[in-house]
Write a structure and sequence with these properties.
Function: Involved in the degradation of asparagine-linked glycoproteins. Hydrolyze of N-acetyl-beta-D-glucosamine (1-4)N-acetylglucosamine chitobiose core from the reducing end of the bond, it requires prior cleavage by glycosylasparaginase.
Shape: globular
Radius of gyration: 22 Å
GO molecular function, one term: chitinase activity
Oligomer: single chain
Protein name: Di-N-acetylchitobiase
Helix content: 25-40%
Distance between the termini: 55 Å
Strand order of the largest sheet: 1-2-3-4-5-6-7-15
Number of helices: 10
Largest sheet: 8 strands, parallel, barrel
Family: Belongs to the glycosyl hydrolase 18 family.
Number of strands: 15
Keywords: Glycoprotein, Glycosidase, Hydrolase, Lysosome, Signal
C-alpha cells in the first residue's frame, strides 16, 4: 500500500461519523492547517490555479518555513526545489499563486520516446497527487547541435506541456535556460523550439561568470549590459518577449583574491569549466542575508561598478587574505526590472527567495522589503 493510499483510507475513516466532509478532513489532516475543530476548509485550496497573471513573479523556494514571510502580494508562481510542503501549497493557492514541481531528468534517457512517456506520466501523477499546478523543467546539462539529445529535449518539453495541459486544467509548464542563448556552458539547446513548446522560459540571469575567456578577475554575477544584451539575443531569435521571465540572483559570489590592486581589481585562481580557462567556481555563493551583515564590517564598504552596474566590496579574512564579493541589491535589480517593463517581458523572478533575512530584526526587515520592492513594476 502506498503512502497516498494509506492517507486516503485514513481520511475516509476520519470523516466517518464526523460532521466534516472528506475534503475538510483531508486538508486538516494532510496539510495541517488547522485542527479538526469544526471550522471547514475551502476545498478550492486543492484545485489548480487557472488564472493567468498580467505580470509574472516567479519564485524558487528551497525548503524551510521562510515562505511564510514572502511578499505574497506579488508572487504568481512558486517552484518547489526543496522538500514538498503541503502547507505552502495550500497557502499559495489561497493567495492565487501556482506551486510547481521541479523537473530534472538525464538527457541520455529521454532519447527513448517510451522513457519520455513514462517520465511525463510520473510527473503528471505526482502533480495531481500533491495538488500542484505544473512543472518547472530544470535541465542544465550539455547538449550539442545536432545530436539526438538536441531533438529529444525539445520533444520532452512539448510532450510534457501537452500532457500537463490535457490532464490538469490551468497547469503551467516552464523551462529554465541560461542567461544567453549562445551555447552557455555548452548548453546548445533549440531555444526557439523549447520556447514554442512551453508556457514560458525562466532565463537564469546569474552565474554569468561560469565561463571566463578573458582575464581571471572577480566580476559581477549579473553584469547589466551583458544581461540585457542576452535578452536582445533571445528576442532577435524570434522568441516573443512574453515568453521570457527575467530571473535575478538574490545571492553573490565571494572570491579569494590572489592579488587586490588599489583600484579594486581582484585576480582569482584559474578554475576551468566546460572548456573555459576561468570561472566563478573560483568563488563561493553567498546569500544576500549574509552579505548585508558582512558588508558593514568590510574594508571598503559598499562599492559600485558603473560599467557592470553592480555593487561589490572587499574584506580581509582571519588568515589575512583579501576577498572581493560581487552581488545584486535593490539598485542593480531595479535597473534590470526597468528593462523587463520597457521591453514587455512576461515578468521577473529570482533564485532564490530563501536568501533574504526574515528574522524580524528591524534593519533586516527593511533590507528584505527593499529587495521584494525592487521586483515591482513601476507606473
Amino acid at each position: 500500500m502506498t503512502a497516498d493510499e494509506w492517507l486516503c483510507i485514513s481520511f475516509t475513516k476520519s470523516a466517518a461519523g464526523s460532521n466534516l466532509n472528506l475534503h475538510s478532513v483531508m486538508l486538516s489532516s494532510y496539510y495541517g492547517i488547522r485542527h479538526l475543530s469544526g471550522e471547514r476548509e475551502d476545498p478550492a485550496l486543492c484545485q489548480p490555479i487557472r488564472n493567468r497573471p498580467n505580470f509574472e513573479v516567479f519564485v524558487f523556494d528551497v525548503g524551510g518555513k521562510t515562505w511564510k514571510s514572502y511578499d505574497w502580494s506579488q508572487i504568481t508562481t512558486v517552484a518547489l526545489f526543496g522538500k514538498y510542503d503541503s502547507e505552502l501549497m495550500c497557502y499559495a493557492h489561497s493567495k492565487g499563486a501556482r506551486v510547481v514541481l521541479k523537473g530534472d531528468v538525464s538527457l541520455k534517457d529521454i532519447i527513448n520516446p517510451h522513457f519520455r512517456t513514462s517520465w511525463i506520466a510520473q510527473q503528471v501523477n505526482l502533480a495531481k497527487t500533491q495538488y500542484m499546478d505544473g512543472i518547472n523543467i530544470d535541465i542544465e546539462q550539455e547538449v550539442t547541435c545536432p545530436s539526438p539529445e538536441y531533438d529529444a529535449l525539445t520533444a520532452l518539453v512539448k510532450e510534457t506541456t501537452d500532457s500537463f495541459h490535457r490532464e490538469i486544467e490551468g497547469s503551467q509548464v516552464t523551462f529554465d535556460v541560461a542567461w544567453s542563448p549562445k551555447c552557455i556552458d555548452r548548453r546548445c539547446y533549440n531555444y526557439t523550439g523549447v520556447a514554442d513548446a512551453c508556457d514560458f522560459l525562466f532565463v537564469m540571469s546569474y552565474d554569468e561568470q561560469s565561463q571566463v575567456w578573458s582575464e581571471c578577475i572577480a566580476a559581477a554575477n549579473a553584469p547589466y549590459n551583458q544581461t540585457i544584451t542576452a535578452y536582445d539575443d533571445y528576442i532577435k531569435m524570434g522568441i516573443n518577449p512574453k515568453k521570457l521571465v527575467m530571473g535575478l540572483p538574490w545571492y553573490g559570489y565571494d572570491y579569494t583574491c590572489l592579488t587586490l590592486s588599489e583600484d579594486h581589481v581582484c585576480t582569482i585562481a584559474k578554475v576551468p569549466f566546460r572548456g573555459a580557462p576561468c570561472s566563478d567556481a573560483a568563488g563561493r555563493q553567498v546569500p544576500y542575508k549574509i552579505i548585508t551583515k558582512q558588508v558593514n564590517s568590510s574594508l571598503s564598504g559598499i562599492l559600485w561598478d558603473e560599467n557592470q552596474k553592480s555593487p561589490y566590496y572587499n574584506y580581509k579574512d582571519s588568515a589575512g587574505r583579501f576577498h572581493q564579493v560581487w552581488y545584486d541589491n535593490p539598485k542593480s535589480i531595479s535597473l534590470k526590472r526597468v528593462y523587463v517593463q520597457t521591453w514587455g517581458l512576461r515578468g521577473i523572478g529570482m533564485w532564490n527567495a530563501n536568501c533574504l533575512d526574515y528574522s524580524g530584526d528591524a534593519v533586516a526587515k527593511q533590507q528584505t522589503e527593499e529587495m521584494w520592492e525592487a521586483l515591482k513594476p513601476k507606473l
